Input
Amino acid sequence: MSVTPAHLRRFRPFALLAVVAALAATLLGSPASAGGSAAAAGSLPCDLYAAGGTPCVAAHSTTRALYSAYNGRLYQVRRASDGSTRDIGALGAGGYADAAAQDSFCAGTSCLITVIYDQSARGNHLTQAPPGGFQGPAAGGYDNLAEASAAPVTVGGHKAYGVFIAPGTGYRDNSTNGIATGDQPEGMYAVLDGTHYNGGCCFDYGNAETNSRDNGNGTMETIYFGNIKVWGYGTGNGPWVMADLENGLFSGVNPGYNANDPSVSHRFLTAVVKGGPNHWAIRAGNAQSGGLSTYYDGPRPNASGYNPMKKEGAIILGIGGDNSNSSAGTFYEGVMTSGYPSAATENAVQANVNAAGYTTSAVAGAPTPGARVSLRATTSCCTNSYLRHNSADNNAVIAPVSASSTSADKAAATWTVRPGLGDASCVSFESADKPGQYLRHYDLRLRVDTLDNSALSRLDATFCPQAGHNGQGVSLRSANYPSDFVRHYNYGAYVASHGGTHDWDSATAWADDTSWAVTSPWA
Ligand code: AHR
Output
């Protein structure tokens, strides 16, 4: 039997009318139809949750305001060049993120997202996750921060950035205000990249333990997205939206399989989890269009410890409750509510997410799969030099190439662009004269290699183009080391972070050395 939380058993005519009115306003005044104005017209997700009687108690987004009246800071970035920080705000009340402020602050260097501010006025900001049970202080330390430019996106015609969670990255707030504890009802939704996931534990957003440790069954309640199959799972090979309730990712009432929880991989995915006394649900849908489907709605799992729940009220993003941080994913926006939201409220939120207009952003001049290209250095020393493999060994270097170069030298500096072997939204570079061999990093040095087809080697050979750090051409971000970019250094080629620990991470000329002109192929 499913149990509706007490406050929802009462008829709430005004709240219902408010949701309907807000939904109409959302549909009639969509920012996309408003020609990409800086303010997202209509009622935004937290207005809708408030109207439904289940207000947001945390609201996080690096892409837009989640209240129509919110005009404050969305997130903070820290740049590598001098360690200074900058808050990135909304472009006016209810507006989209001011990504241009990030671009100008981070120009010529790299930035990390240091804080994701809570828009709810409860101060539930997300910061670098501390060590937990999975990664104790002796073993590691704080999780990594997300590279601020790694998840570019367009929202309502505006450039914005998501939070790119590579394994090892995580955010947390262990001292919150207003988040559900014990068996109290709550809801949450998140907009995620449905194509960015893995089978590591656990790409979560939601309610977790306040001491970063596994405190037993029922001590957390979050959205999970990915394709781990060791606990619950659904149809197909994943990824699945599930709930992380601690010591288990649940797709439904049973600890294992739920035939109603499908694999979902919309590029932009809305995921919903909510839970109250002996009642919880999973819902999801395409964040670009259409409604939410319900994958589970019923009583708590029939395994011990989950009824009643023992929620502790911390908030996590990108990690498991005990700080398990092997997971990957991308987060654009999400909230947590007080009270168990109605399906009507969530449907109105989904309509607003549709109207927000999430689309992928094209990178000008990016190499496209199928093309043959050469990659020319843009540093002033070396504008006649191209990325090539050595003839004596397979290491990648830069060297001059001109019309009078030998055909062998021209071919060594020519690449066939392939869909990214480890992430199809990025690219891989197959050597023109060594078919089947790909540019990849190994011990952070670049070389051409025949891959062993492991997931690791495919990721090592995958690079995600973004606008060139010095304003020219493109910079090529490593798919599995998102702070590292293809760089030449002393004529060798590496993946390099800005000011990191290796010689080739040197901050001097980093922006120029990591920017490449994509030219016609030499061969
Ligand atoms: O419930 C799955 C995971 O198990 C939790 O996120 C983590 O705390 C534990 O390792």
Summary: The pocket of alpha-L-arabinofuranose is lined by residues 201-202, 214, 244, 246-249, 320-322, 324 (CB under 6 Å). The chain has a mean pLDDT of 90.
